[in-house]
């Protein structure tokens, strides 16, 4: 494939993790180890349309400036020849233990759902996050319990007391989703302990990329249900990411949900969220993309030799029965060119510097309506309790998403060259969308019935990450 000319690609991101070339999907194996943040991701280096995935690798000291590292895991062994699929990392003593799904498609005329596919759980031990000391299968496909299709994948491992637990996402024979639970004393021998949780026919046919986070005696289960039924303004994308708040019952090894599955993000491009704990907080990345969106909406960068990026890393907090997602404070360090406008109802700002910026709006009084026009043809509109994100042609098929709110007090908007993340009311909700504007117009027009205080900064990294 011809080398893409990066200098003229206005869609390459400034502060979001993306592949220089090729395809990226889920974040994997995130871990903070010996003073360095590591994040790995599903990666196909030489094909922007996807293929057998590797684990790409990026490191950082501050979660803002990242360095591209050599590919960490490549497919090709008999247990992962068709993809080093998603998985997680766990720090233990002086080592990092990674677990991933080795995807194998057998030769022949198979449907690869009920027949012809193996998904093996592979354990990788590393003493530095860069090199591999051991790599071996710990749960071969044939050891999975009956009642499931061939789709069981995406191990996430954690410690509780003296034992280790692994959760895996699965698709049952009746096309409902479930999260399987395995237990181990030594990280190599795993016993199936039943299902942490099972879904019903409205909750999708397959649950991918499960993750569990405990907040005191409460717990949050995150997962990506493929095909979950749309509900009012929620779950409108081809596949969605959701979460349940509840608690872990460690005696019965069940997750006890307290309410319904909630959508994690209201935008068009958000999937397979993945968390880690850096010692004092829970941080989440997600794939800012989704599969099966075409023909409804597309990612035009594929013609420029690359496709997809990750979301910003986000801080997770639990408040009542709601998971809050907030931008990391570290991103304040790359703010430049500050602009502040106090107490204003109208602004037309037609000449925004650069295409990567942050824009905060603090409402002095509750508005009954406002519009905010951004980029080329993107409009955020609020009217009588409903916040609507509308994209024009630069959304490449993305049109409209809505969210009902009790009130609106604050918006924090992160624009990068081809993405938008809108944090509502200090993390109560987020809209994440890819958007692909042309090179010229970059406006901001605000028109509200009540006044707001507005802050704007260019976000700039000394080195352009995507080059
Ligand atoms: C989610 C997913 C995972 C799988 C990976 C393959 O996007 O389908 O279930 O491990 O992507 O790239």
UniProtKB/TrEMBL annotation:
Enzyme Commission number(s): 3.2.1.26
Top EC category: hydrolase
Localization terms from the record: Cytoplasm
Function field: Enables the bacterium to metabolize sucrose as a sole carbon source.
Boundaries of every Glycosyl hydrolase family 32 C-terminal domain copy: 332-449
SMART domains reported for this sequence: Glyco_32
A single GO BP: sucrose metabolic process
Protein known as: Sucrose-6-phosphate hydrolase
Keyword match Cytoplasm: yes
Gene Ontology MF terms: beta-fructofuranosidase activity
Domain of life assignment: Bacteria
Family designation: Belongs to the glycosyl hydrolase 32 family.
């Amino acid at each position: 494939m011809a080398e893409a000319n990066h200098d003229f690609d206005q869609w390459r991101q400034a502060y979001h993790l993306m592949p220089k070339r090729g395809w990226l999907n889920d974040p994997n194996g995130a871990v903070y180890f010996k003073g360095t943040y590591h994040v790995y991701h599903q990666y196909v280096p030489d094909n922007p349309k996807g293929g057998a995935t590797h684990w790409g690798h990026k490191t950082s000291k501050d979660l803002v400036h990242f360095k591209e590292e050599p590919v960490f895991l490549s497919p090709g062994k008999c247990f992962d020849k068709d993809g080093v699929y998603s998985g997680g990392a766990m720090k233990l003593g002086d080592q990092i233990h990674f677990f991933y799904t080795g995807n194998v498609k057998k030769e022949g005329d198979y449907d690869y759902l009920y027949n012809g596919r193996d998904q093996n759980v592979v354990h990788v031990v590393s003493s530095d996050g860069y090199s591999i000391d051991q790599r071996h299968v710990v749960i071969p496909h044939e050891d999975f319990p009956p009642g499931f299709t061939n789709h069981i994948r995406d191990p996430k491992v954690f410690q509780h007391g003296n034992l280790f637990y692994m959760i895996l996402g699965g698709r049952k024979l009746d096309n409902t989703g479930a999260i399987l639970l395995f237990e181990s004393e030594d990280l190599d021998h795993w016993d199936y302990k039943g299902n942490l949780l099972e879904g019903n026919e409205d909750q999708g046919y397959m649950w991918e990329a499960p993750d569990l986070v405990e907040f005191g005696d409460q717990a949050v289960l995150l997962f990506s249900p493929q095909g979950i039924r749309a509900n009012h303004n929620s779950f409108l994308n081809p596949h969605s990411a959701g979460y349940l708040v509840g608690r872990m019952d460690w005696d019965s090894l069940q997750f006890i949900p307290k309410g319904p599955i909630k959508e994690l993000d209201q935008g068009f491009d958000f999937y397979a969220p993945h968390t880690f704990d850096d010692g004092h907080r829970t941080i989440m990345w997600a794939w800012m993309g989704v599969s099966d969106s075409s023909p409804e909406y597309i990612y035009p960068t594929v013609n420029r030799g690359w496709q997809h990026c990750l979301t910003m890393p986000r801080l997770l907090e639990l408040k009542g029965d709601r998971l809050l997602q907030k931008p990391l404070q570290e991103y304040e360090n790359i703010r430049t060119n500050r602009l502040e406008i106090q107490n204003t109802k109208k602004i037309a700002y037609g000449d925004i510097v650069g295409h990567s910026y942050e824009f905060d709006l603090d409402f002095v009084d509750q508005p009954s309506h406002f519009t905010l026009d951004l980029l080329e043809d993107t409009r955020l509109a609020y009217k009588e309790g409903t916040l609507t994100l509308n994209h024009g042609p630069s959304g490449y098929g993305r049109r409209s998403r809505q969210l009902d709110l009790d009130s609106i007090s604050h918006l924090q908007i992160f624009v990068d060259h081809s993405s938008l993340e809108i944090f509502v009311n200090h993390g109560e909700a987020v809209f994440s969308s890819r958007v692909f504007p042309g090179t010229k117009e970059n406006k901001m027009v605000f028109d509200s019935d009540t006044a707001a205080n507005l802050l704007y900064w260019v976000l700039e990294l000394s080195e352009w990450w995507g080059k």
